[in-house]
Amino acid sequence: MADQSTTIRLTLAQAIVRWMANQYIVIEEQEQRLFGGGFGIFGHGNVTCLGEALYQHKDELPLYRGQNEQSMGFAAAAYAKYHLRQRLMFCTASAGPGTSNLLTSAALAHANRLPMLLLCGDTYVTRLPDPVLQQMEHFNNPSLGVNDAFKAVTRYWDRIVHPAQIIQSLPNAIATMLDPGDCGPAFLGLPQDVQGWAYDYPAVFFERKVHRIRRAAPDKQELADAVQLLKSAARPLIIAGGGVQYSGAVKELSHFAEAHQIPVVETIAGRANLLATHPLNAGPVGVTGSDSANALAEKADVILAVGTRLQDFTTGSWTAFAQEAQFISINAARHDAGKHCSLPVVGDARVALEQLADLMSGYQCPQSWTTLAAEERKQWDATVAVNVAHGNRPNSYAQAIGVINELCDPQDRVVAAAGGLPAEVTANWRTLGIGTVDVEFGFSCMGYEIAGGWGARIAQAERQPDKDTIVFTGDGSYMLMNSDVYSSVLTGKKLIILVLDNGGFAVINKLQNNTGNESFNNLLSDCPTVDSPFAVDFEAHARAMGALAETVENVSELGEAFKRAKAASKTSVIVMKVDAYEGWTTEGHTWWEVGTPQVSESSKIRAAHEEVESSRSKQRRGV
């Protein structure tokens, strides 16, 4: 350890970057850099000082230049998700709109509990040049600015007004981002003048620091209560969430389920906790789930929820389960463990499952319940086979999913988000490899698909360079954010992107129609301000950004195009039109609460409102 009296004179920006370059983490008994690098777009507020510092460490902390700050944040989130929150990226943006563009991606990371460090330009602490370019002035609160908006969408927030403050703030930010119970994005506002101010930092501050993810053991009494309740169960069910993977508890989950023959259902974030062929895998649960999982959910008497925040798409807005069903929630986050009066087991999922298994010795789920689960899953597999089959019918999302599922490598990574594709992937994708599915539905954020694919591919290339990242996106999300097709080409991070064009926002049009409304402003053909709808040439657009691209007419051609994309060495975009009305997966849906008008001149809307409200009696009221 360095002499405590030894100091190094650095600017604030230089100190931040040097400190980041010396952070390491132990993963599977090996030390790796905590930061895989960063994403950055320079402008005033970060180019002169932070840019200078990053240049000095460009080998240790590679900086990927994004095309849009929001997509940079999406890429950073996907990178952290691939690495199971054990490695992360930083993002840097200029003061003003460059930084505010990161708000949506910070919200996505916050909702999904994903770490990323935001290093953003800020206005001058001295206020001598105010008002500066792109400054948001508040006449009655001069300290308030755009960066304060990040307080709502980050787990840790600080504005650095003196270089010495990072001695405390940086370790606190890392501690938050690596805490399984409090994980999420961290934000540091870096005023433009303070970034360049020098300070005599203790040399010890920059010594190599090795981090380890904390594994909190659950309280013994909470475990004992959970065991007592589970052993009383006649129809137990396990809900496996994304936290199972983040904890590295996939094997423990499988062993626990197998030892006691308890059926397992998966959340959207928990897809790929079990292979599709696992005999206890009863399918995805909830609004975009499966008939098999939802049939079990409504009959289960004790539900063990592991690593899930019990979002409404998992719980069917709390109608998917019997009113009298009792919940046990294993979660590192106290807030999640106690939801809906669950019996909480606050702690690491792996540790909790290991200890629970020891205490559950001798318990066996009734054979009739396990047999029912297997029968339900068999029927659901038959339903999926029909959904993905292609023949003399319009192209659909499910058919495209089936073709790719059949041809991909078991370790290829699948990325989807927002719109209709998350539901279709969740319901119809048959998991071939553990942890290979990234369906971003925590924030249900359009535009994540290609940007998230790029971030996932950067991470995948570090560990599985011979595998592919496959992106499913609709035309709406593609139009919203597509510039990382170009990023993937520039950086040599190959993607296979399926653009499934249904002529607008078809899934919201479906919701609109299902609630009695007329089609309006979702499909291009139904937009009153559109003069003459025309099809975008997505193939030509992708080619213009340097990708390989082709358009196919049907799913048979899609399969051949996918084979060519697999064989190619750079990003490929495959475009296929799908029907906006036909081919949706209609099975497996639980009730979902959406606000419908209590009063309307339309008889269809009134009837739809009554139909929606007819299921409300099943809704659990938090007890």
Automatic annotation (TrEMBL):
The keyword DNA-binding does not apply. GO terms for cellular component: acetolactate synthase complex. It is an enzyme of class 3 (hydrolase). Residues 600-623 are annotated as: Disordered. Residues 39-134 form the Thiamine pyrophosphate enzyme N-terminal TPP-binding domain. The keyword Metal-binding does not apply. Keywords: Hydrolase, Thiamine pyrophosphate. Residues 440-575 form the Thiamine pyrophosphate enzyme TPP-binding domain. Residues 224-356 form the Thiamine pyrophosphate enzyme central domain. One of its GO terms (biological process) is L-valine biosynthetic process. One of its GO terms (molecular function) is magnesium ion binding. Belongs to the TPP enzyme family. PANTHER family: 3D-(3,5_4)-TRIHYDROXYCYCLOHEXANE-1,2-DIONE HYDROLASE (PTHR18968:SF9), THIAMINE PYROPHOSPHATE ENZYMES (PTHR18968). This is 3D-(3,5/4)-trihydroxycyclohexane-1,2-dione hydrolase. It comes from Granulosicoccus antarcticus IMCC3135. The lineage of its organism: Bacteria, Pseudomonadati, Pseudomonadota, Gammaproteobacteria, Chromatiales.
